[in-house]
Write a structure and sequence with these properties.
The chain is about 45% helix and about 15% strand. It contains 14 helices and 13 strands. A seven-stranded parallel sheet has the order 3-2-1-4-5-6-11, with helices on both faces. The model is unreliable at about 1-5, about 275-280 and about 325-330 (pLDDT under 50).
């Protein structure tokens, strides 16, 4: 049943991570809602010019989570939306160490600040379906109550488990605060720029030999609607957020007008650096495991509680394809360059394996 709106929407909302795609759009939507008096964006980085225009009505504070205690208390924040969670390490900005500092330590510090904020009554946290991991022991469909069947290999999935653990502790200490955890499937749309959208935008898409994983996506616009309702309405709990239905990886590649390049799982993991050179982006163990095992979640609880049904996975992916239509042509030069880079990487892996065999013998 959809939660009633008996409590008035929060007047003062703090949003973290506003220098990035999702955070900027959530803050902008809240600032445009007449029921919200003030929206404060908390981020250590200056928003890029492409996002700055969205934040004209948002009060920006250049600070990280360590400054949250003062900000939340002084501004008498009634709601905090925590979106400062990154899904892949950036080698140019500290790599994995900086990623964990932001995701895990940053969340811990933010929740410590929220715990001491007397006027706070709502907390919304971005999580991910990566919380379920990906292994051969997985069920066909995950519900919110399903526990991971294996410890995830990927750094992002492990961070998500830590983040949700801290939120559970917060719920015990502040039962008076409505805490909403949103486990999003991978984001996709005609404008989203993520690891997976870059992956499907390449002329040749590396896949795992002998596997055809079942995938789910959520359209960015639907994710924004759910986030907005989580702040304005009362929806405490943990929810899977994904489009209904699934796409096999092979179907997604064909819909995008790309060519699949099947590789052994170990080779795909070893060729992450080559993939970055081709322009695919930061493919890590989280993505490799997803392409091997897939992941499908049940959204019954979300639809029943929010009274909102996200568009299907297929419809969300088709929107992405339409938005990238102009860049989807497989020119001879692009195809040859991608093929050369991948084959060179395979030769390097084989050469390294042969050298190790020679040493052992």
């Amino acid at each position: 049943m959809v939660s009633s709106e008996s409590a008035a929407p929060p007047r003062v909302v703090v949003v973290t991570g506003v220098s990035r795609f999702l955070g900027a759009r959530v803050a902008s939507r809240l600032a445009a809602d007449p029921r919200v008096e003030r929206v404060i964006g908390l981020d250590p980085h200056e928003p890029p010019p492409a996002l700055a225009g969205l934040l004209a009505e948002v009060e920006l504070i250049r600070a990280d989570a360590r400054a949250a205690t003062g900000v939340i208390a002084e501004l008498e924040a009634e709601a905090v939306v925590h979106l400062s969670v990154t899904s892949a390490p950036d080698p140019q900005h500290g790599g994995r160490a900086a990623m964990k500092e932001q995701n895990v330590i940053g969340t811990m510090q933010l929740l410590a600040a929220a715990q001491n904020a007397g006027r706070l009554r709502k907390l919304v946290v971005r999580s991910s379906t990566a919380a379920y991991g990906a292994s051969f022991r997985d069920p066909a469909v995950f519900t919110e109550d399903t526990e991971p069947r294996a410890v995830p290999r990927g750094s992002f999935a492990r961070d998500i488990l830590d983040i949700e653990g801290y939120v559970r502790g917060f719920r015990r200490r502040r039962p008076d605060v409505d805490a909403t955890v949103l486990r999003f499937a991978p984001f996709i749309s005609d404008t989203a720029d993520t690891t997976l959208t870059r992956y499907f935008s390449q002329p040749m898409v590396p896949t795992v030999l002998g596997r055809d994983a079942r995938l789910q996506f959520v359209h960015v616009d639907d994710a924004l609607e759910i986030l907005h309702r989580s702040v304005i309405e009362d929806h405490p709990g943990t929810f899977n957020v994904a489009g209904a239905g699934v796409l096999a990886l092979s179907q997604a590649v064909r819909r995008a007008g790309r060519i699949s390049m099947p590789l052994p799982e170990g080779t795909l993991s070893s060729l992450a650096a080559v993939a970055r050179g081709v322009g695919i982006g930061q493919i890590g163990l989280d993505q490799v495991d997803l392409f091997v095992h897939g992941r499908v979640v049940d959204t019954t609880r979300l639809v029943k509680e929010f009274g909102f049904t996200p568009r299907s996975t297929a419809a969300a992916f088709d929107d992405f394809v339409k938005g990238h239509h102009n860049g989807s042509s497989l020119t001879a030069d692009r195809l040859a360059a991608a093929e050369r880079a991948i084959l060179d990487g395979i030769r390097q892996v084989r050469s390294a394996a042969g050298s190790r065999e020679d040493i052992r013998s």
